[in-house]
Amino acid sequence: MNQIILVTGPARSGKSEWAEALAIQSHKSVVYIATATHDSDDQEWQQRIQRHQQRRPQDWTTLEVPMQLSATLAQMQPNTCVLVDSLGTWVANLLSQEEAMWENTMQELLETVQLVAADMIFVAEETGWGIVPAYPMGRTFRDRLGGLVRYLGSICEPVYLVTGGHVLNLSLLGSLLPVGE
């Protein structure tokens, strides 16, 4: 049976490093799915991408998948560990979708995740722990990512929170809320 893991936390908390360590511990062939796109005009963004690339083992396969995440996951082989980094970037890439289309996209991802025989590790940023964004697109991003993380968290085991230099296994420490609003 495949394992589905969620690693979440705030920016610069170490979530990607923890997810990478879990992928290494799987002792399987790793497919790293990067949801970010290259932007040669943004040097700081390029440096972030390079730091992630330099940390990864050379034998990992890297796929750049900014939008077609469900279709890509559906093609994964059983004896692999798939690391998706990150869901926040994927959600941002799809912000132009109307709400009904987004709901379909999210549902398709959740259904695909449960059908894929590969192990999967998802990295997701935590949003909404502070102020409510002052602009509609920011609120849409926060709400979509928050909802996706909650729904995905209900089918993942374990779910980790990385914050303050610590990794917490929420599956052991907490109780699962029913999915809904």
Walkthrough of the structure:
By secondary structure, the chain is an alpha/beta fold. The chain has a single domain (about 5-130, about 140-175), classed as P-loop containing nucleotide triphosphate hydrolases (Rossmann fold, 3-Layer(aba) Sandwich). Helix content is about 40%, strand content about 20%. It contains seven helices and seven strands. It has a seven-stranded mixed beta sheet with strand order 3-2-4-5-1-6-7, with helices on both faces. The radius of gyration is 16 Å and the shape is globular. The two termini are about 30 Å apart. The mean pLDDT is about 95. It catalyses: adenosylcob(III)inamide + GTP = adenosylcob(III)inamide phosphate + GDP + H(+); adenosylcob(III)inamide phosphate + GTP + H(+) = adenosylcob(III)inamide-GDP + diphosphate; adenosylcob(III)inamide + ATP = adenosylcob(III)inamide phosphate + ADP + H(+). Its EC number is 2.7.1.156, 2.7.7.62.
Topology:
Layout: E1 4-9, H1 15-25, E2 29-34, H2 43-55, E3 61-64, H3 69-74, E4 80-85, H4 87-93, H5 99-115, E5 119-125, H6 136-153, E6 159-163, E7 166-169, H7 170-173
Helix pairs in contact: 4-6
